[in-house]
Design goal:
Layout (H helix, E strand, L loop, with lengths): L5 E2 L14 H4 L5 E2 L8 H11 L12 H4 L16 E14 L15 E8 L10 E2 L12 E3 L11 E12 L6 E8 L7 E6 L6 E8 L5 E13 L3 E3 L10 H12 L14
Parallel strand pairs: 1-2
Antiparallel strand pairs: 3-7, 3-11, 3-12, 4-6, 4-8, 5-7, 8-9, 10-11
Length: 271
């Protein structure tokens, strides 16, 4: 490696919002500088990325897709393409414990919490086959974002008991993130969130911590979920039937046999 790449928010972001770092991580950018004073989606993904390190040293290895050496394809139509991978996983949102009542909620106003589950991908365009095996999403602009039913008048131990099975096709399986957001039906602002990298989530029944709008962890508020991830399948796009690849293969062999560069003194050429 000869150079380090760094990206940072534009100065026109006067409200100190952040961009989505997934766009740059998948292209091999080492440093995605963010506005740490704003705990928005970009900052939540960034925290989840570096919380996944086993040694907590602050360094995380690039995704495998950004470290692999790509061979130049023989066909121009195949240039820049990466193998797609199928990732299937299931998330059961079982319950929550001791949710903090929003400070802005008026006294005497009922508290009806529900949970949103959202899957975040690094692909430029989402595959049309990406889906979750649940009823249609109430948010058509976010096809991988679903929500449980609200539990009325219970922020102490609400039971949601909702299952979501996600079938994802992506070029970057190491850059799949899951975000849980706890909301109240009478407020648009989220009450608590937790974001994690899918590959760093342990399977089975798990208690997930919850963070407030500033990124501080609540002392007692948690989510109780069950996580199950299946093995990853690799899907390669083979050429369509009837395409003659013989000429392409011969051309490739000819290119690698030929050396168009001039001979050096080591090859017997002149000094």
């Amino acid at each position: 490696m000869r150079y380090m790449m760094r990206v940072y928010p534009n100065a026109t972001r006067v409200t100190s919002t952040n961009f989505n770092p997934l766009i740059y991580w998948k292209r091999g950018v080492q440093m995605a500088a963010l506005n740490w004073q704003t705990f928005d989606l970009g900052m939540q993904i960034n925290q989840a990325m570096f919380d996944s390190g086993t040694d907590q040293s602050g360094y995380v290895l690039k995704p495998l897709e950004a470290r692999e050496i790509q061979m130049k394809p023989l066909s121009a139509d195949e240039a820049g393409k990466r193998p797609r991978k199928h990732v299937n996983f299931k998330i059961d949102v079982i319950s929550a414990q001791q949710l903090m009542r929003p400070a802005s909620l008026k006294e005497g106003t009922s508290f009806h919490p529900y949970v949103e589950v959202e899957v975040l991908l690094a692909d430029d365009r989402a595959d049309k086959k990406n889906r979750a095996e649940v009823p249609p999403s109430p948010l058509p602009e976010a096809p991988l974002k679903y929500q449980t039913e609200a539990v009325r008048d219970n922020g102490f131990n609400p039971v949601f008991d909702k299952s979501y099975t996600f079938n994802i096709t992506t070029k970057y399986p190491d850059l799949i993130f899951v975000r849980w957001t706890v909301r109240n039906t009478v407020q648009s602002a989220p009450m608590a969130t937790f974001t994690a990298k899918l590959s760093s989530l342990k399977q089975g029944y798990r208690t997930l911590p919850l963070l407030n709008a500033k990124g501080d962890r609540y002392l007692f508020s948690t989510l109780f979920c069950r996580i199950k991830t299946d093995s990853t399948d690799i899907m390669v796009d083979y050429p369509a039937d009837g395409v003659d690849n013989g000429k392409k293969n011969k051309l490739g062999r000819g290119v690698f046999r030929s050396n168009m560069s001039p001979k050096t003194s080591l090859d017997g050429g002149g000094c």
